[in-house]
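Q: Now give one record:
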Amino acid sequence: MSRTAIGDHALLSDRHSAALVTREGSVDWLSFPRFDSPSVLGRLLDDAAGHWSIRPAGEVETSRRYLDATMALETTHRAASGTFVVLDALLTGPGNSGHELGKGAPHLLARRVTCTAGDVEVEVEYAPRPEYGLIHPLLSPVDGGITARGGNEWLVLTTPVPLEVTASTARARFRLRDGESRTFGLHRSTIEETPARVWEQGELDTALDGTVSSWQSWSHLHQRYQGPWRDLVHLSGRVLQALSFQPTGAVVAAATTSLPEDLGGERNWDYRYTWVRDASLTMEALWVAACPDEAVEFFAFMATAAAGSIVHRHIPLQIMFGVGGERDLSERTLPHLSGWRDSRPVRVGNGAWNQQQVDVYGELMSAAYRLADQLEMLDEDTRRFLTALAETAAMRWREKDQGIWEVRGEPQHFLHSKVMCWVALDRAVKMADRIDAESKVPDWRRTRDEIHETVTRDGWSDTANAFTQYIGTDALDASTLMMPIVGFLPPDHPQVLATIDAIEERLTDDRGLVYRYRTEDGVDGLAGEEGTFLLCTFWLAQALALSGQVERAREIFERAASYVTDLGLLAEEVDAETGELLGNFPQAFSHIGLVNAAWAIDQAGRAGEATVDGRAPRRRNAEGDRRPGTSGP
Protein backbone atom coordinates (compact mmCIF):
# COMPACT_ATOMS: atom_id res chain seq x y z
CA MET A 1 0.00 0.00 0.00
CA SER A 2 1.14 3.58 -0.58
CA ARG A 3 2.25 5.30 2.60
CA THR A 4 3.06 8.60 0.89
CA ALA A 5 0.74 11.34 2.11
CA ILE A 6 -1.79 12.54 -0.44
CA GLY A 7 -0.46 16.09 -0.12
CA ASP A 8 3.10 14.98 -0.88
CA HIS A 9 2.20 14.44 -4.53
CA ALA A 10 2.58 16.90 -7.40
CA LEU A 11 0.22 17.08 -10.38
CA LEU A 12 1.40 16.96 -13.98
CA SER A 13 -1.02 17.40 -16.87
CA ASP A 14 -1.04 17.70 -20.63
CA ARG A 15 -4.78 18.49 -20.59
CA HIS A 16 -5.46 14.93 -21.70
CA SER A 17 -4.19 12.86 -18.80
CA ALA A 18 -2.51 13.29 -15.43
CA ALA A 19 0.47 12.07 -13.45
CA LEU A 20 1.24 12.33 -9.73
CA VAL A 21 4.88 12.58 -8.61
CA THR A 22 6.11 12.15 -5.03
CA ARG A 23 8.63 14.39 -3.32
CA GLU A 24 11.15 11.53 -3.59
CA GLY A 25 10.82 11.54 -7.38
CA SER A 26 8.53 8.58 -8.01
CA VAL A 27 5.71 8.79 -10.54
CA ASP A 28 3.10 6.80 -8.63
CA TRP A 29 0.12 7.60 -10.86
CA LEU A 30 -0.12 7.92 -14.62
CA SER A 31 -3.19 7.34 -16.78
CA PHE A 32 -2.56 7.41 -20.53
CA PRO A 33 -4.10 8.64 -22.79
CA ARG A 34 -7.05 10.16 -20.87
CA PHE A 35 -7.72 11.16 -17.29
CA ASP A 36 -10.13 8.22 -16.92
CA SER A 37 -7.95 5.64 -18.70
CA PRO A 38 -6.63 2.62 -16.77
CA SER A 39 -3.41 3.51 -15.00
CA VAL A 40 -0.03 2.63 -16.46
CA LEU A 41 1.67 3.51 -13.17
CA GLY A 42 -0.54 3.03 -10.11
CA ARG A 43 1.53 2.62 -6.95
CA LEU A 44 -0.65 5.32 -5.44
CA LEU A 45 -3.24 2.57 -4.91
CA ASP A 46 -1.05 -0.50 -4.49
CA ASP A 47 2.70 -1.10 -4.27
CA ALA A 48 2.47 -3.66 -7.07
CA ALA A 49 0.60 -1.40 -9.52
CA GLY A 50 3.62 0.28 -11.10
CA HIS A 51 5.93 3.28 -10.70
CA TRP A 52 8.84 5.12 -12.29
CA SER A 53 11.32 6.72 -9.92
CA ILE A 54 14.32 8.95 -10.54
CA ARG A 55 15.85 9.67 -7.18
CA PRO A 56 19.12 10.22 -5.33
CA ALA A 57 21.13 7.17 -4.31
CA GLY A 58 21.71 8.45 -0.77
CA GLU A 59 20.43 10.91 1.84
CA VAL A 60 19.43 14.33 0.53
CA GLU A 61 17.49 17.47 1.34
CA THR A 62 14.69 18.00 -1.15
CA SER A 63 12.73 21.06 -2.26
CA ARG A 64 10.37 21.50 -5.16
CA ARG A 65 8.28 24.05 -7.00
CA TYR A 66 6.34 24.58 -10.18
CA LEU A 67 8.37 26.64 -12.60
CA ASP A 68 6.96 30.16 -12.78
CA ALA A 69 3.44 30.20 -14.30
CA THR A 70 3.57 26.53 -15.35
CA MET A 71 2.57 23.01 -14.37
CA ALA A 72 6.16 21.80 -14.93
CA LEU A 73 7.65 20.44 -11.72
CA GLU A 74 11.20 21.23 -10.63
CA THR A 75 12.55 19.06 -7.78
CA THR A 76 15.97 19.86 -6.27
CA HIS A 77 17.91 17.22 -4.32
CA ARG A 78 20.91 18.42 -2.29
CA ALA A 79 23.38 15.75 -1.19
CA ALA A 80 26.74 16.08 0.56
CA SER A 81 28.54 15.50 -2.74
CA GLY A 82 26.44 17.71 -4.96
CA THR A 83 23.04 18.87 -6.18
CA PHE A 84 20.81 17.70 -8.97
CA VAL A 85 17.51 18.95 -10.33
CA VAL A 86 14.72 16.94 -11.97
CA LEU A 87 12.33 18.74 -14.32
CA ASP A 88 9.11 16.78 -14.94
CA ALA A 89 6.29 17.55 -17.36
CA LEU A 90 3.63 15.87 -19.44
CA LEU A 91 4.34 17.35 -22.86
CA THR A 92 1.55 19.60 -24.10
CA GLY A 93 2.40 19.79 -27.78
CA PRO A 94 2.86 22.97 -29.81
CA GLY A 95 -0.28 24.95 -28.85
CA ASN A 96 0.13 27.73 -26.29
CA SER A 97 -3.00 29.86 -26.08
CA GLY A 98 -6.48 29.30 -24.70
CA HIS A 99 -8.03 25.97 -25.51
CA GLU A 100 -5.11 25.24 -27.84
CA LEU A 101 -2.90 24.44 -24.84
CA GLY A 102 -2.49 20.68 -25.01
CA LYS A 103 -3.68 20.29 -28.59
CA GLY A 104 -1.60 17.60 -30.23
CA ALA A 105 -0.13 16.38 -26.95
CA PRO A 106 2.08 13.36 -27.75
CA HIS A 107 1.18 11.34 -24.59
CA LEU A 108 4.72 11.57 -23.32
CA LEU A 109 6.08 12.13 -19.81
CA ALA A 110 9.50 13.81 -19.95
CA ARG A 111 12.00 13.92 -17.06
CA ARG A 112 15.27 15.84 -17.30
CA VAL A 113 17.99 15.30 -14.67
CA THR A 114 20.67 17.99 -14.35
CA CYS A 115 23.62 18.15 -11.95
CA THR A 116 24.02 21.77 -10.86
CA ALA A 117 26.89 21.37 -8.37
CA GLY A 118 29.50 18.75 -7.48
CA ASP A 119 28.68 15.23 -8.56
CA VAL A 120 25.76 12.99 -7.66
CA GLU A 121 24.66 9.38 -7.99
CA VAL A 122 21.17 8.85 -9.36
CA GLU A 123 18.95 5.75 -9.23
CA VAL A 124 16.28 4.93 -11.80
CA GLU A 125 13.62 2.26 -11.36
CA TYR A 126 10.98 1.68 -14.02
CA ALA A 127 8.11 -0.76 -13.40
CA PRO A 128 5.19 -0.16 -15.78
CA ARG A 129 2.01 -2.04 -14.86
CA PRO A 130 -0.83 -1.30 -17.32
CA GLU A 131 -4.51 -2.01 -16.63
CA TYR A 132 -4.35 -0.86 -13.00
CA GLY A 133 -1.47 -3.25 -12.28
CA LEU A 134 -2.99 -6.36 -13.82
CA ILE A 135 -0.40 -6.55 -16.62
CA HIS A 136 3.30 -7.21 -16.07
CA PRO A 137 4.56 -6.29 -19.54
CA LEU A 138 7.46 -7.76 -21.45
CA LEU A 139 10.37 -5.31 -21.28
CA SER A 140 12.87 -5.40 -24.13
CA PRO A 141 15.99 -3.20 -24.51
CA VAL A 142 16.29 -1.36 -27.84
CA ASP A 143 18.76 1.23 -29.05
CA GLY A 144 18.27 4.24 -26.75
CA GLY A 145 15.41 2.81 -24.76
CA ILE A 146 13.19 0.00 -23.52
CA THR A 147 9.90 -1.18 -24.98
CA ALA A 148 7.05 -2.55 -22.90
CA ARG A 149 4.40 -4.75 -24.46
CA GLY A 150 1.30 -6.01 -22.74
CA GLY A 151 -2.40 -5.86 -23.49
CA ASN A 152 -3.25 -3.01 -25.82
CA GLU A 153 -0.47 -0.75 -24.50
CA TRP A 154 2.70 0.06 -26.39
CA LEU A 155 5.15 1.91 -24.13
CA VAL A 156 8.63 3.09 -25.03
CA LEU A 157 10.97 4.50 -22.41
CA THR A 158 13.66 6.76 -23.84
CA THR A 159 16.69 6.36 -21.59
CA PRO A 160 20.12 7.92 -22.12
CA VAL A 161 21.69 5.40 -19.72
CA PRO A 162 21.51 1.59 -20.01
CA LEU A 163 18.98 -0.10 -17.71
CA GLU A 164 19.18 -3.66 -16.47
CA VAL A 165 15.95 -5.57 -16.96
CA THR A 166 14.75 -8.16 -14.47
CA ALA A 167 11.32 -9.61 -15.25
CA SER A 168 9.08 -6.56 -15.73
CA THR A 169 11.27 -4.01 -13.94
CA ALA A 170 14.28 -2.03 -15.22
CA ARG A 171 16.92 -0.39 -13.03
CA ALA A 172 20.04 1.72 -13.34
CA ARG A 173 22.45 3.74 -11.24
CA PHE A 174 24.55 6.45 -12.86
CA ARG A 175 26.69 9.42 -11.88
CA LEU A 176 26.35 13.01 -13.05
CA ARG A 177 28.89 15.79 -12.70
CA ASP A 178 28.36 19.53 -12.54
CA GLY A 179 26.73 20.74 -15.77
CA GLU A 180 25.80 17.28 -17.07
CA SER A 181 22.22 16.46 -17.97
CA ARG A 182 20.19 13.43 -19.06
CA THR A 183 16.59 13.42 -20.31
CA PHE A 184 14.21 10.48 -20.09
CA GLY A 185 10.81 10.11 -21.74
CA LEU A 186 7.91 7.67 -21.43
CA HIS A 187 5.90 7.57 -24.66
CA ARG A 188 2.61 5.73 -25.03
CA SER A 189 0.46 4.53 -27.91
CA THR A 190 -1.83 1.58 -28.63
CA ILE A 191 -1.18 -1.21 -31.07
CA GLU A 192 -3.64 0.44 -33.50
CA GLU A 193 -1.82 3.80 -33.44
CA THR A 194 1.53 4.93 -34.79
CA PRO A 195 3.84 3.14 -32.38
CA ALA A 196 5.51 5.04 -29.58
CA ARG A 197 9.21 5.48 -30.19
CA VAL A 198 12.59 6.37 -28.78
CA TRP A 199 13.17 10.14 -28.87
CA GLU A 200 16.49 11.83 -29.55
CA GLN A 201 17.87 13.78 -26.57
CA GLY A 202 17.77 17.12 -28.37
CA GLU A 203 14.25 16.48 -29.62
CA LEU A 204 13.06 15.56 -26.14
CA ASP A 205 14.71 18.62 -24.57
CA THR A 206 13.17 20.92 -27.17
CA ALA A 207 9.69 19.48 -26.53
CA LEU A 208 10.15 19.78 -22.76
CA ASP A 209 11.29 23.40 -23.00
CA GLY A 210 8.39 24.06 -25.36
CA THR A 211 5.93 22.74 -22.77
CA VAL A 212 7.33 25.14 -20.17
CA SER A 213 6.99 28.01 -22.64
CA SER A 214 3.45 26.99 -23.57
CA TRP A 215 2.24 27.05 -19.95
CA GLN A 216 3.96 30.40 -19.37
CA SER A 217 2.45 31.84 -22.53
CA TRP A 218 -1.03 30.70 -21.51
CA SER A 219 -0.63 32.08 -17.99
CA HIS A 220 0.74 35.44 -19.06
CA LEU A 221 -1.97 35.88 -21.69
CA HIS A 222 -4.92 34.75 -19.59
CA GLN A 223 -4.25 35.20 -15.86
CA ARG A 224 -5.05 38.77 -14.87
CA TYR A 225 -6.40 38.60 -11.32
CA GLN A 226 -4.52 41.13 -9.16
CA GLY A 227 -6.36 40.89 -5.83
CA PRO A 228 -5.31 39.34 -2.51
CA TRP A 229 -3.74 35.89 -2.54
CA ARG A 230 -2.84 36.46 -6.17
CA ASP A 231 -0.33 33.61 -6.37
CA LEU A 232 -2.78 31.08 -4.89
CA VAL A 233 -5.57 32.22 -7.20
CA HIS A 234 -3.32 31.98 -10.26
CA LEU A 235 -2.05 28.55 -9.24
CA SER A 236 -5.65 27.41 -8.71
CA GLY A 237 -6.50 28.68 -12.19
CA ARG A 238 -3.69 26.62 -13.66
CA VAL A 239 -4.82 23.56 -11.72
CA LEU A 240 -8.36 23.97 -13.07
CA GLN A 241 -6.93 24.35 -16.56
CA ALA A 242 -4.82 21.24 -16.00
CA LEU A 243 -7.95 19.29 -15.05
CA SER A 244 -9.68 20.13 -18.34
CA PHE A 245 -9.73 17.71 -21.26
CA GLN A 246 -8.59 19.71 -24.27
CA PRO A 247 -10.19 17.67 -27.07
CA THR A 248 -13.76 18.19 -25.82
CA GLY A 249 -13.77 20.97 -23.21
CA ALA A 250 -14.81 18.57 -20.42
CA VAL A 251 -13.43 19.18 -16.92
CA VAL A 252 -12.68 16.38 -14.46
CA ALA A 253 -13.44 16.72 -10.76
CA ALA A 254 -10.00 15.40 -9.77
CA ALA A 255 -7.05 13.55 -11.25
CA THR A 256 -7.43 10.37 -9.18
CA THR A 257 -9.73 7.59 -8.10
CA SER A 258 -10.43 6.08 -4.68
CA LEU A 259 -8.33 8.30 -2.45
CA PRO A 260 -10.42 8.02 0.71
CA GLU A 261 -12.57 10.56 2.50
CA ASP A 262 -12.37 8.32 5.56
CA LEU A 263 -9.06 6.48 6.12
CA GLY A 264 -9.70 2.75 5.85
CA GLY A 265 -13.40 3.30 5.07
CA GLU A 266 -15.64 2.79 2.07
CA ARG A 267 -15.98 6.44 0.98
CA ASN A 268 -13.67 5.98 -1.98
CA TRP A 269 -14.87 7.27 -5.35
CA ASP A 270 -13.62 7.72 -8.90
CA TYR A 271 -13.52 11.45 -9.67
CA ARG A 272 -11.90 11.30 -13.13
CA TYR A 273 -15.11 12.27 -14.93
CA THR A 274 -16.83 15.51 -15.77
CA TRP A 275 -19.63 16.48 -13.41
CA VAL A 276 -21.97 19.07 -14.88
CA ARG A 277 -21.92 20.93 -11.56
CA ASP A 278 -18.17 20.88 -11.02
CA ALA A 279 -17.34 21.78 -14.61
CA SER A 280 -19.81 24.68 -14.59
CA LEU A 281 -18.30 26.02 -11.39
CA THR A 282 -14.83 25.56 -12.88
CA MET A 283 -15.80 27.75 -15.82
CA GLU A 284 -17.02 30.41 -13.38
CA ALA A 285 -13.85 30.24 -11.29
CA LEU A 286 -11.74 30.51 -14.43
CA TRP A 287 -13.57 33.76 -15.14
CA VAL A 288 -11.73 35.14 -12.09
CA ALA A 289 -8.47 33.17 -12.26
CA ALA A 290 -8.05 33.20 -16.05
CA CYS A 291 -9.90 34.31 -19.15
CA PRO A 292 -12.00 31.21 -19.89
CA ASP A 293 -11.48 30.81 -23.62
CA GLU A 294 -12.77 27.27 -23.12
CA ALA A 295 -16.30 28.48 -22.29
CA VAL A 296 -17.62 28.05 -25.81
CA GLU A 297 -16.11 24.56 -26.10
CA PHE A 298 -17.52 23.58 -22.71
CA PHE A 299 -21.07 24.57 -23.53
CA ALA A 300 -20.81 22.95 -26.94
CA PHE A 301 -19.62 19.78 -25.18
CA MET A 302 -22.56 19.92 -22.78
CA ALA A 303 -25.08 20.54 -25.54
CA THR A 304 -23.67 17.57 -27.47
CA ALA A 305 -23.42 15.24 -24.48
CA ALA A 306 -27.04 15.94 -23.57
CA ALA A 307 -28.23 15.97 -27.16
CA GLY A 308 -31.87 15.07 -27.69
CA SER A 309 -32.93 13.87 -24.27
CA ILE A 310 -33.29 17.14 -22.40
CA VAL A 311 -33.98 19.31 -25.45
CA HIS A 312 -36.78 17.25 -26.95
CA ARG A 313 -38.25 15.35 -24.01
CA HIS A 314 -37.11 17.20 -20.88
CA ILE A 315 -35.67 13.98 -19.55
CA PRO A 316 -33.49 14.87 -16.51
CA LEU A 317 -30.03 15.98 -17.49
CA GLN A 318 -27.45 13.31 -16.73
CA ILE A 319 -25.29 14.78 -13.97
CA MET A 320 -21.91 13.50 -15.21
CA PHE A 321 -20.21 12.16 -18.32
CA GLY A 322 -16.94 10.66 -19.45
CA VAL A 323 -14.48 13.20 -20.77
CA GLY A 324 -15.41 12.18 -24.29
CA GLY A 325 -19.15 12.55 -23.55
CA GLU A 326 -19.71 8.89 -22.59
CA ARG A 327 -22.90 8.30 -20.60
CA ASP A 328 -22.52 4.83 -19.08
CA LEU A 329 -20.08 5.19 -16.17
CA SER A 330 -21.10 2.02 -14.37
CA GLU A 331 -19.16 1.52 -11.16
CA ARG A 332 -17.05 -1.53 -10.37
CA THR A 333 -14.38 -2.42 -7.86
CA LEU A 334 -10.80 -3.59 -8.43
CA PRO A 335 -10.29 -6.24 -5.74
CA HIS A 336 -6.64 -6.83 -6.66
CA LEU A 337 -5.71 -3.33 -5.43
CA SER A 338 -5.27 -2.71 -1.70
CA GLY A 339 -6.01 1.02 -1.93
CA TRP A 340 -4.24 4.02 -0.47
CA ARG A 341 -3.25 2.99 3.07
CA ASP A 342 -5.50 -0.05 2.79
CA SER A 343 -8.62 1.99 2.05
CA ARG A 344 -10.82 -0.42 0.14
CA PRO A 345 -12.62 -0.76 -2.14
CA VAL A 346 -10.81 0.77 -5.09
CA ARG A 347 -13.49 1.85 -7.55
CA VAL A 348 -13.55 2.79 -11.23
CA GLY A 349 -16.63 4.30 -12.75
CA ASN A 350 -19.08 6.14 -10.54
CA GLY A 351 -22.55 4.98 -9.59
CA ALA A 352 -23.76 8.56 -9.28
CA TRP A 353 -23.98 8.82 -13.07
CA ASN A 354 -27.66 7.79 -13.09
CA GLN A 355 -28.76 9.75 -10.02
CA GLN A 356 -31.17 12.64 -10.25
CA GLN A 357 -29.62 15.90 -9.03
CA VAL A 358 -31.81 18.82 -9.99
CA ASP A 359 -29.34 21.48 -8.86
CA VAL A 360 -27.27 21.00 -12.04
CA TYR A 361 -29.63 23.16 -14.11
CA GLY A 362 -28.82 26.12 -11.89
CA GLU A 363 -25.06 25.68 -12.04
CA LEU A 364 -25.11 25.47 -15.83
CA MET A 365 -27.38 28.50 -16.27
CA SER A 366 -25.34 30.47 -13.75
CA ALA A 367 -22.15 29.71 -15.65
CA ALA A 368 -23.76 30.71 -18.93
CA TYR A 369 -24.89 34.00 -17.40
CA ARG A 370 -21.48 34.67 -15.84
CA LEU A 371 -19.72 33.94 -19.14
CA ALA A 372 -22.17 35.83 -21.31
CA ASP A 373 -19.45 37.97 -22.88
CA GLN A 374 -17.56 34.83 -23.92
CA LEU A 375 -20.79 33.36 -25.31
CA GLU A 376 -21.90 36.32 -27.41
CA MET A 377 -22.53 34.23 -30.51
CA LEU A 378 -24.56 31.30 -29.19
CA ASP A 379 -25.42 28.78 -31.87
CA GLU A 380 -28.97 27.49 -32.18
CA ASP A 381 -28.22 24.16 -30.50
CA THR A 382 -26.74 25.87 -27.43
CA ARG A 383 -29.69 28.31 -27.21
CA ARG A 384 -32.12 25.40 -27.33
CA PHE A 385 -30.08 23.55 -24.75
CA LEU A 386 -30.08 26.48 -22.30
CA THR A 387 -33.80 26.99 -22.82
CA ALA A 388 -34.40 23.32 -22.12
CA LEU A 389 -32.39 23.57 -18.90
CA ALA A 390 -34.73 26.26 -17.60
CA GLU A 391 -37.82 24.39 -18.74
CA THR A 392 -36.67 21.18 -17.09
CA ALA A 393 -35.83 23.00 -13.84
CA ALA A 394 -39.34 24.46 -13.88
CA MET A 395 -40.82 20.99 -14.34
CA ARG A 396 -38.71 19.09 -11.79
CA TRP A 397 -37.97 21.45 -8.90
CA ARG A 398 -40.68 19.83 -6.73
CA GLU A 399 -39.08 16.38 -7.01
CA LYS A 400 -36.81 14.74 -4.47
CA ASP A 401 -33.23 14.06 -5.53
CA GLN A 402 -29.82 12.93 -4.28
CA GLY A 403 -28.56 16.49 -4.10
CA ILE A 404 -25.18 18.14 -4.46
CA TRP A 405 -23.50 15.59 -2.19
CA GLU A 406 -24.78 12.61 -4.21
CA VAL A 407 -26.15 10.78 -1.20
CA ARG A 408 -26.63 7.06 -1.55
CA GLY A 409 -29.44 7.10 0.96
CA GLU A 410 -33.05 8.01 0.26
CA PRO A 411 -33.76 11.02 -1.99
CA GLN A 412 -34.90 14.14 -0.16
CA HIS A 413 -36.22 17.62 -0.85
CA PHE A 414 -32.77 19.16 -0.53
CA LEU A 415 -32.83 22.93 -0.14
CA HIS A 416 -29.73 23.47 -2.24
CA SER A 417 -31.34 21.67 -5.18
CA LYS A 418 -34.43 23.86 -5.04
CA VAL A 419 -32.37 27.03 -4.65
CA MET A 420 -30.39 26.10 -7.75
CA CYS A 421 -33.60 25.52 -9.71
CA TRP A 422 -34.50 29.07 -8.68
CA VAL A 423 -31.10 30.14 -10.03
CA ALA A 424 -31.76 28.35 -13.33
CA LEU A 425 -34.98 30.28 -13.84
CA ASP A 426 -33.62 33.56 -12.52
CA ARG A 427 -30.69 33.49 -14.94
CA ALA A 428 -32.89 32.25 -17.78
CA VAL A 429 -35.18 35.27 -17.31
CA LYS A 430 -32.15 37.57 -17.47
CA MET A 431 -30.78 35.78 -20.56
CA ALA A 432 -34.09 35.34 -22.36
CA ASP A 433 -33.19 37.70 -25.20
CA ARG A 434 -29.90 35.91 -25.82
CA ILE A 435 -31.52 32.47 -26.03
CA ASP A 436 -34.61 33.55 -28.00
CA ALA A 437 -36.97 32.65 -25.15
CA GLU A 438 -38.74 35.93 -24.35
CA SER A 439 -42.16 34.26 -24.63
CA LYS A 440 -41.34 31.95 -21.72
CA VAL A 441 -40.38 34.70 -19.28
CA PRO A 442 -43.81 35.12 -17.58
CA ASP A 443 -44.05 31.41 -16.76
CA TRP A 444 -40.42 31.29 -15.63
CA ARG A 445 -40.95 34.25 -13.32
CA ARG A 446 -44.02 32.67 -11.72
CA THR A 447 -42.22 29.39 -11.09
CA ARG A 448 -39.13 31.17 -9.82
CA ASP A 449 -41.24 33.06 -7.28
CA GLU A 450 -43.03 29.88 -6.23
CA ILE A 451 -39.69 28.16 -5.54
CA HIS A 452 -38.56 31.14 -3.49
CA GLU A 453 -41.71 31.10 -1.39
CA THR A 454 -41.47 27.35 -0.80
CA VAL A 455 -37.82 27.42 0.29
CA THR A 456 -38.15 30.41 2.59
CA ARG A 457 -41.35 29.01 4.17
CA ASP A 458 -40.56 25.28 4.44
CA GLY A 459 -36.76 25.26 4.53
CA TRP A 460 -36.36 27.26 7.74
CA SER A 461 -36.18 25.57 11.14
CA ASP A 462 -36.89 27.56 14.30
CA THR A 463 -35.29 24.75 16.28
CA ALA A 464 -32.04 24.97 14.32
CA ASN A 465 -32.40 28.75 13.86
CA ALA A 466 -31.16 28.16 10.34
CA PHE A 467 -32.07 27.02 6.87
CA THR A 468 -31.67 23.26 6.87
CA GLN A 469 -30.39 20.42 4.73
CA TYR A 470 -33.79 19.42 3.39
CA ILE A 471 -37.42 20.20 4.02
CA GLY A 472 -38.64 18.55 7.21
CA THR A 473 -35.34 18.24 9.08
CA ASP A 474 -33.44 20.31 11.61
CA ALA A 475 -30.07 19.09 10.29
CA LEU A 476 -27.57 21.64 8.99
CA ASP A 477 -25.87 21.51 5.61
CA ALA A 478 -23.07 23.77 4.39
CA SER A 479 -24.69 24.01 0.95
CA THR A 480 -27.21 26.50 2.40
CA LEU A 481 -24.32 28.98 2.38
CA MET A 482 -24.97 29.21 -1.36
CA MET A 483 -28.25 31.08 -0.73
CA PRO A 484 -26.57 34.50 -0.36
CA ILE A 485 -23.77 33.63 -2.78
CA VAL A 486 -26.18 33.09 -5.69
CA GLY A 487 -28.43 35.99 -4.68
CA PHE A 488 -31.39 33.91 -3.48
CA LEU A 489 -31.52 36.10 -0.36
CA PRO A 490 -29.56 39.22 0.58
CA PRO A 491 -26.38 38.37 2.47
CA ASP A 492 -27.43 40.61 5.39
CA HIS A 493 -30.88 39.02 5.67
CA PRO A 494 -31.44 37.99 9.32
CA GLN A 495 -32.12 34.35 8.43
CA VAL A 496 -28.99 34.23 6.27
CA LEU A 497 -26.87 35.67 9.07
CA ALA A 498 -28.38 33.19 11.52
CA THR A 499 -27.61 30.30 9.14
CA ILE A 500 -24.02 31.46 8.72
CA ASP A 501 -23.63 31.62 12.50
CA ALA A 502 -25.22 28.20 13.01
CA ILE A 503 -22.88 26.58 10.49
CA GLU A 504 -19.81 28.26 11.95
CA GLU A 505 -20.80 27.24 15.48
CA ARG A 506 -22.22 23.75 14.98
CA LEU A 507 -20.90 22.37 11.70
CA THR A 508 -17.15 22.84 12.20
CA ASP A 509 -14.31 20.86 13.72
CA ASP A 510 -11.89 22.02 16.41
CA ARG A 511 -9.84 23.83 13.77
CA GLY A 512 -12.85 25.79 12.53
CA LEU A 513 -13.07 23.91 9.22
CA VAL A 514 -16.56 23.18 7.91
CA TYR A 515 -18.19 19.76 7.46
CA ARG A 516 -20.62 19.26 4.58
CA TYR A 517 -23.14 17.81 7.03
CA ARG A 518 -23.10 15.47 10.00
CA THR A 519 -22.64 11.91 8.76
CA GLU A 520 -24.16 10.51 11.96
CA ASP A 521 -27.56 11.73 10.75
CA GLY A 522 -27.39 8.89 8.20
CA VAL A 523 -28.64 10.91 5.24
CA ASP A 524 -25.91 9.68 2.88
CA GLY A 525 -26.56 5.96 3.48
CA LEU A 526 -22.86 5.17 4.05
CA ALA A 527 -20.91 3.84 6.98
CA GLY A 528 -18.09 5.75 8.66
CA GLU A 529 -17.21 9.41 8.86
CA GLU A 530 -15.44 11.90 6.63
CA GLY A 531 -13.16 14.89 6.98
CA THR A 532 -14.04 18.55 6.86
CA PHE A 533 -14.72 19.89 3.38
CA LEU A 534 -12.45 22.63 2.07
CA LEU A 535 -14.99 23.92 -0.47
CA CYS A 536 -17.51 24.44 2.32
CA THR A 537 -14.97 26.32 4.42
CA PHE A 538 -14.28 28.65 1.49
CA TRP A 539 -18.06 29.06 1.07
CA LEU A 540 -18.23 30.24 4.67
CA ALA A 541 -15.53 32.80 3.97
CA GLN A 542 -17.33 33.93 0.83
CA ALA A 543 -20.70 34.28 2.58
CA LEU A 544 -19.09 36.26 5.41
CA ALA A 545 -17.44 38.59 2.90
CA LEU A 546 -20.72 39.20 1.10
CA SER A 547 -22.43 40.01 4.40
CA GLY A 548 -19.81 42.66 5.12
CA GLN A 549 -17.90 40.66 7.75
CA VAL A 550 -14.63 41.00 5.89
CA GLU A 551 -12.21 40.37 8.74
CA ARG A 552 -13.99 37.17 9.75
CA ALA A 553 -14.00 36.17 6.09
CA ARG A 554 -10.24 36.72 5.85
CA GLU A 555 -9.68 34.64 8.96
CA ILE A 556 -11.73 31.74 7.60
CA PHE A 557 -10.05 31.99 4.19
CA GLU A 558 -6.59 31.90 5.73
CA ARG A 559 -7.63 28.94 7.84
CA ALA A 560 -8.67 26.92 4.79
CA ALA A 561 -5.81 28.12 2.60
CA SER A 562 -3.27 27.06 5.22
CA TYR A 563 -3.88 23.48 4.06
CA VAL A 564 -2.41 24.04 0.61
CA THR A 565 0.61 21.86 0.01
CA ASP A 566 4.09 23.22 -0.59
CA LEU A 567 3.06 23.37 -4.25
CA GLY A 568 -0.25 25.14 -3.57
CA LEU A 569 -2.47 22.09 -4.20
CA LEU A 570 -5.60 21.07 -2.29
CA ALA A 571 -7.39 17.77 -1.84
CA GLU A 572 -11.09 17.52 -1.11
CA GLU A 573 -11.07 17.21 2.69
CA VAL A 574 -9.00 17.53 5.86
CA ASP A 575 -8.82 14.82 8.51
CA ALA A 576 -10.41 16.37 11.60
CA GLU A 577 -8.00 14.54 13.92
CA THR A 578 -4.65 14.73 12.13
CA GLY A 579 -5.04 17.69 9.77
CA GLU A 580 -3.89 15.49 6.86
CA LEU A 581 -5.40 16.02 3.41
CA LEU A 582 -7.97 13.39 2.37
CA GLY A 583 -9.87 12.59 -0.79
CA ASN A 584 -9.09 12.71 -4.47
CA PHE A 585 -6.28 15.02 -5.51
CA PRO A 586 -6.00 17.69 -6.55
CA GLN A 587 -9.67 18.50 -6.17
CA ALA A 588 -11.29 21.04 -8.51
CA PHE A 589 -14.00 21.89 -5.95
CA SER A 590 -11.43 23.07 -3.40
CA HIS A 591 -9.60 25.28 -5.88
CA ILE A 592 -12.92 26.68 -7.14
CA GLY A 593 -13.81 27.61 -3.56
CA LEU A 594 -10.45 29.30 -3.02
CA VAL A 595 -10.77 31.40 -6.17
CA ASN A 596 -14.32 32.54 -5.50
CA ALA A 597 -13.71 33.32 -1.82
CA ALA A 598 -10.62 35.37 -2.64
CA TRP A 599 -12.58 37.29 -5.25
CA ALA A 600 -15.49 37.96 -2.88
CA ILE A 601 -13.15 39.20 -0.14
CA ASP A 602 -11.37 41.42 -2.64
CA GLN A 603 -14.67 42.91 -3.79
CA ALA A 604 -16.02 43.31 -0.26
CA GLY A 605 -12.89 45.22 0.61
CA ARG A 606 -13.80 47.79 -2.03
CA ALA A 607 -16.60 49.65 -0.29
CA GLY A 608 -19.92 49.41 -2.06
CA GLU A 609 -18.64 47.48 -5.06
CA ALA A 610 -19.87 43.92 -4.42
CA THR A 611 -23.37 42.77 -5.27
CA VAL A 612 -25.06 39.37 -5.11
CA ASP A 613 -27.36 39.12 -8.08
CA GLY A 614 -24.85 37.35 -10.28
CA ARG A 615 -23.75 40.50 -12.18
CA ALA A 616 -21.60 42.76 -9.97
CA PRO A 617 -20.15 46.13 -10.98
CA ARG A 618 -17.56 46.04 -13.69
CA ARG A 619 -13.93 45.89 -12.69
CA ARG A 620 -10.64 46.85 -14.24
CA ASN A 621 -8.06 44.14 -14.89
CA ALA A 622 -4.28 44.44 -14.97
CA GLU A 623 -4.25 45.75 -18.54
CA GLY A 624 -6.80 48.45 -17.80
CA ASP A 625 -9.63 47.03 -19.92
CA ARG A 626 -12.94 46.29 -18.24
CA ARG A 627 -14.58 42.93 -17.67
CA PRO A 628 -17.94 41.93 -16.23
CA GLY A 629 -17.86 40.60 -12.69
CA THR A 630 -20.06 38.92 -10.11
CA SER A 631 -19.92 38.35 -6.42
CA GLY A 632 -20.12 34.59 -6.55
CA PRO A 633 -21.06 31.52 -8.55
Observations:
- Residues 6-218 form a domain with the Beta-galactosidase; Chain A, domain 5 fold (CATH 2.70.98.10).
- The longest strand covers residues 108-127.
